User: Fold these one by one.
Assistant:
Number 1:
Amino acid sequence: MKTCSLIVVGAVLMVFSHLASGTQADDTTIRIINQTQGVTPFINKVTLDVSDTSVLKSIQFTVIPKPGSVTRPLSGTYSNEYLVSRGFEHPPEVILPVYGLYDGYNNTVKLTYRFLDGSSKQVNTTITTTVFNDPCRYKNPTVLQHRSGGALSYDYMMVKGSCSDFAPAIIDTDGILRWVGTAGLSIGTVTFFDNAVYFGHGHNLSRIDLDGTVTLLGDYSSLRVVNFHHNIDRGKVGIILDADTTTDYNSVTIEVDASGRVLKTWNMANIISAAMIAGGDDPNQFVYHSPTDWFHLNGTTYNRADDSLIVSSRENFLICLDYETSTIKWILGDPTKKWHQFPSLRKFALTLAPGSRPPIGQHAPSIAYDQSLLLLDNGQSSVFQVPRGEQPGYASPRKYKLDLKAKIATEIWNFEMGQNIVCPFCGSVYEDSPLNYLIDYAFENPNAQNAFAQLLGLNAAGEKVFYYQYPTFSCTTAYRAFPIHLENTKFPTVGPQAINLSTRGLVLTGDNVLIGGFIITGTDPKTMLLRALGPSLRSLGVSGVLSDPVLRIYNSSGTLIAANDNWQSDPNHFVVEANGLTPANLLESATVQTLAPGAYTVIVRGTDPTPGIGLVELYDLSPLSNSKLKNISTRGSVGTTDNVLISGFIIGDVESATVVVRALGPSLAASGVSGVLSDPTLTIYNSTGTPIATNDNWQDNVNAIDIQRNGLAPPNPQESTLVLHLPAGSYTAVVRGANGGTGVGLAEVYTLH
């Protein structure tokens, strides 16, 4: 009886305890009081009545897919601060923009309310939309292949066209139209940046937010711009616009930031003329000014690994410029065209490896995940310059590996479709996650009465995942198409950066413990959450785990600034809970620290000398601050089988980032470390566990010149390094010893800014 009484009393106390300390989700009343259709049926504004907006952390909406859909749900998360800054919050009312709705449909939309104390609650609502009259016929493609269930890294694509005043369009991979532009303009110069559409019209640049708001950002007539044309591409800081000026046609490019402020300008006529004069040639034989289309600039890409700008000239070649000085670094193109006749330009030419085709009349250059160059080769000879060069007559996406030390370009991939796709102008190919492609044949069958555009998705296995066809006139329907990620868009945007690192390794005693390091650059303090796990790793199938990890943080002078044994003892444990990062075991460690810019070290030990496998994790809780994580690294013991050094890192939110990943061993001896790993190897895996890159000795890497340029060459040739341009997502770096070697190793991830 006594036992029973104790149990009953305990239960009663639990009930009253819960009632006495209700969560913010329990205590806050939120009602949907109105729905208003936006400027198009794809957008709606839901009005909420919130009893206390001050406790809101964020609101997320998720559009539930139609039955039979393979596309992942479209979802957006607004921070409370963002809603306030955009004027969507007037307590007690909050206006919630919902975009990406199906037109002519009863949409089920799930709303998730998150609160500052970590609590949350959900509610479903129905949003009924009207039918959109689609002038471009995106809603009715000819389905050459339905979206299959095969793995694909992207689910949405922005299609740039000028076939209506509702440009551009967003289509999901089921082939369903989900959003159209709201500026009321037929525009062909657009990109997706900062979670919004940026578009050029005449000499102006404007922005369309996904909620339909249109904002004029800049008027560039003072720069003598008369028109923006072709692409808008990502730059070093902002976006790069292709411009016509009063003096130069299709040969000027301008970088602006997110607000439209001009950062840098490149005039290809001036740059190439200067190089030709310096090389003893007459530029008047090759370079012309407006209105002659001698260059036909149709796209650019910025390569962060070597701080260069790659410019596509449909008439001539791909030309690479040093970003800061504008000097020419290399040229890749058809050597039978006119440019190759001038020694001053020919000296910059990359040699094509045997079996490699040069790009001819190309569009849409970009940097692939492994730092190779990707483009759509239209197979169309020059229109103005003579000699005109080769005329293969078919289009093919191509990828080139560039060895800039040897000045050799090797074609490493193409998709020629049996050499039967005739697309002489426009079009694009872009890689999302490694080997996941979106191909746009913008103007196929141009000489026939019924021309068409095609959108084709390929996954990492080389399988066609979808294939849609649209009627077109010239390039008006799908000049260019690129993957975008709307599965969980965050407002405000989290930019390109590595935002957390986790490393698993064997924790011994003495110096053979798990040691993490990170560097914060910038001017603002950064809030970091650090964890040390052990017992909970058993649920992942890890044996021999560290039974009771202890975490300590030191600054650059070696002073201990924070320590934690059991996470609930940390003064900021409520922040750990609010971010959903509560360790599964009470013996595990976690601490939240706001740290000034500088270098820091995290050490994980056990409370007793028993060895075990532990995990150290670093989370950036302030990715929007002016400070960034420049470097994150972990040192630990590298054994065999599963007892290796395993580091995970996450790239940004939706933007890609260029990273340098290193595995060190021999050079650690100079820092007094004994028993070092003599010959480390490095392999990078994506989120599905597929290896995407590997390196043993860093000097064997074709990007070794970029490693050196960034000052990240390992001291020892036996150490490993990879330079990768990775889309947003999670990745794993595994450090092993060559030939089964063991010892202390170091895994490092650097973000190039």
Note: The chain has seven helices and 51 strands.
Number 2:
Amino acid sequence: MAGGGGGGGGLMMAHPAGNAVGRAGAPQPPPQASSTHGGAPPPSAAFLGADLLDKQQSISLKQVKHTAHLPIVAVDLYAGEPHVAMYPPKPEDPSIGTPPVLVGKMKADVAFQSTETAQKTLRKWLAKQKTYTSLQTDALAKNDDAAAVLIKKPQQWLGLRRLEDAPEFVRSRVTTELATPAISQETSLDVGTTMANSTLDGSQPTGDDFDRVVCNVRIHSSKKVLTVLPEEATQILLNQAQHHVATKSNLGDDEDEIADCPMAVAIPAYASHDAAVEALYDATGSSGVFFQRSVCALSGALLPGPEGKPNKLLERLNEVRTAMHKEFQREQAKNPGATFEDEILLILLGMTDEGFECTAVQVSTLQPSNLCCLYGDFKVLSTVSYQAENPLTKIRQCSTELEAAIDQLAPEADGPGGLVIYGSKAEQVSIAAKWNAIKLKQKEWADVPVFNTNPDCVAIGTAILGAVSHGRLSVLVDAGAKKKAALGIRVQNVAPAAVGVQINYFGGAAEKWEPVKVIFDFDRRIPAGPYAIDLKAADCVISRSGISTTPDEAFEKAYKEVQGAKGIPRREEAALNLKIQVVQKWARDGEWINVGDPMEPLVKLEGDVGEEEKRVACESVSLKLSLGVSGMIATRLDGEL
């Protein structure tokens, strides 16, 4: 076996101090059969972006310097009709603040002309032989064109490995094909699109992390089917948004410069899981920044209204804050050492065509010097979301679970200062009507004032948060005798999905998987980790025998028996059979979904180039998991060679 003799103690899961994100790489397809030891693999570009946002909610000046002259493109991607906003190039003084600009709305579907030229252009665009401008001119159609071939809402399918991973109602809205033999793609000459199970290389699905849901597109009956990944179709939507912004800002027609425009995207909580976010990074060329849709809505809702049209939500916050300050003055008279806490709880309700989300956020730190960031601190307490064919049916469940979560996580928090509704005008009317019908069920929230928002507030808020992350919006804070720049908005977020691991000591037999061990639960403050799972071959031997790893007489006796040279065969067998599966739960009442393929953490592959690799057992390794703000999971293995 490789490595030393392994120490005492059972299989241990221990929280390290702090919340620093480890230097880790997100899994990249095709997956490796085994993990190597002695250091982390090179991180993907996608995770590098996530890591930067996780640590400081901003990107280094060096990374954004070459795009500082370009507008930031902000998209409310999951809305029924996505709104597009922009934030202008970096101002000379980011602490003053420049308001974001609404660009307009776009369709959520991708529409193609049903011509041979369109088929040829799309094929070349997929092969990176044509630019988006060529695609726009020769292949894209208007959505209301009766002859157009549509890919409907490709963002719904981002990162899915199987059609069955999507809710039934989502599958029912499109044509699907559960089994897609390669030859069947050519048996029908019908023009149209079909969602199907496939793989990243177009081969047959085998149940591993290489599998993907794809869209098979036939634009013209005389041409072959083209396979389009959801992230490729989503990229077309995002490129369209970039070109809308380029036109609005008179950027010109330089294709490369338009493609370099930074992207900021709002993501609903139900879509903020590892697979979807990783695919969205691919759709943005690994340069996008992503934010919780509810937080984007709040950021946009707190922007002062145009002259002569007051913002009622800001007026309410000022009213609550004034009352809090009067209470503080009374307290200070009794206790001169008291400090003023200005956290105001807001409840946000929002929906898309596919889901509903309910979020609790405490806002604080009034910053009147920058009107784009009037409140500088957003502390998310909890977010509850569910997908549903009729999202309105989930309001009561979401609000009830959110209220219970607040009572548990922040029992000292004051009652909500307001309830904020966001979405299209029709969605807000429906949410308000439904809320009025059920609010008496929420005893503490029945009398909370309700505030509607502009339909574009999510896109506008996304532009603001994107500007903060790119150093275009800041505030000046005291730093001794000097002033220094700080992020215009500081967001403390929580996990909208849960992360766990499953362990199998017997080589992957289906019936031998241990129950899921939750590592990062819903509402866990993020970024989180690294969380270390220490794995030892000796402990695996004991677990295979059915003896508890809790230190006692039986454990000590069994542990002594597997030590030394005599125990090597048993330790080697146990190490070679150990498998660990990282899993994620996207909804509180949902199922655990595999993230990547099972890992073999106690196996090292050896062999020269051109030779068959040999699986070598290791004595011990530490698996470290981290969860980023955007929802991506990072892993790192540290062990002895």
Note: Confidence is low (pLDDT under 50) at residues 4-57, 180-187.
